[in-house]
Design goal:
Order of helices and strands: EHEEHHEEEEHEEEEEHEEEEHHEEEEHHH
CATH topology of the largest domain: FAD/NAD(P)-binding domain
CATH class of the largest domain: Alpha Beta
Shape: globular
CATH architecture of the largest domain: 3-Layer(bba) Sandwich
Helix content: 25-40%
Structural class: alpha+beta
Largest sheet: 8 strands, mixed
Number of domains: 2
CATH superfamily of the largest domain: FAD/NAD(P)-binding domain
Distance between the termini: 23 Å
Number of strands: 20
Radius of gyration: 21 Å
Number of helices: 10
Length: 376
Amino acid sequence: MPAVNNVLVVGGGLAGTATAILLAQRGVAVDLVEVKPDIAAIGSGITLQGNALRELRRLGVWERARAEGFPFDCLGLRAPDPAGTLLFEIPDVRSGGPDLPATMGMPRPALARVLLDRATETGVKTRFGVAPTGLAQDAGGVDVTFTGGSTGRYDLVVGADGIRSTTRQLVGIELEIRSTGMGIWRAFGPRPASVTHTDLYYGGPCYIAGYTPTGTNSLYAYIVEDVTDHSGLAAEQRLATMRELSAAYHGPWDEIRPTLTDPSRINYTRFETHVLPPPWNRGRVVLIGDAAHSCPPTLAQGGAQALEDAAVLAELLLARDSLDDDLWNTFTARRYDRARTVVEASNQVGQWLLDHVQGDVPGLVRRIGDLVSQPA
């Protein structure tokens, strides 16, 4: 028998939905709650490395995801010059194995919908607009109170509710969420035919300008700058700011820029980071994904690490017959150092840019690629 019979998963992002699917498809009763009214309506694009694609295959959604996304196998580096000169193309590591693409871009809402559909198929009971407000543990389970006053009792609560996790707060964990000093503009729009993989431009007025194809007819474009408080900007001003910053970048950017016309498809977020020291559980409550570790997208590993957390946690819960110290120690041994290494490497790329230091980015990328090529 598995270590758990019924589980509450808090958070409908990658980590939470993946955990719910993996447990439910093996007969565990799973409730999934998400505070947002519709998680599938939020976000622009996401870059998924091969190790993330490996986990999508484990979840039984790889073919569906591939149909919604845009796979590719290399990274282009371009100069911030008047021609947007392509300097060279670097083959990406096929970290998911030789039978999967190295990388795939995908609209975030499409990925969320694929995962939620799979969760429904496996019997997960999902409620939106709901969050826990209280957790009370004893030796046999966790009593949970939700917004609206409903209650439930579970063998385990999985907190996969993001960087500012409510679950983390409810179990009394305090940690520092640090700004890295960078912020990113993102836009979602149509894909020009010239965009067939990620291109990155280092330098110019911003640290990074780039774009990633997310489908036959879509891409997301992004510009990384010094972190700035843009909260006072109206939607039209945000659009104008991104268009202005992108004016220094050419090549395919000259085709992308005229398509940036919808203010609702522009967003700005700060790069933030943290790693929760082990253990990631407090009794029968465990934290995964951004609730436990978060990194800037400089190595495009945030989503992959969230999916890996889910895979390892579900594997252990299904293989063991009790929630004991050995299970949690094994979970820590398999996840903490790996996630911390990825976070530190992602932060290092950004710090080199902030310090205007010519770091060994290719070497670091290869090192992380080799690490994540091994299953978690």
